[in-house]
Amino acid sequence: MTSLPGDSDVGGGSARESQPLACARCGARAEGPRPTWTCSVENGTRHYFCDRCSRENLRAIEGRLDSAWW
């Protein structure tokens, strides 16, 4: 598995991988292995967005607007 920027493989895995991932916009929960969601770093904090929310807000994401704007 490829790690995300800023992730560390030290310690044999992170606690984040064992917890279900939730969309920062709609709250949808990921089931199974890590999904193909959009990851956004805003003010030093990672936010994950499900495929549906990512598609609905593609222009704002490409324009690099913070999620608070969309």
From TrEMBL:
This is Uncharacterized protein. It comes from Streptomyces cellulosae. The lineage of its organism: Bacteria, Bacillati, Actinomycetota, Actinomycetes, Kitasatosporales.
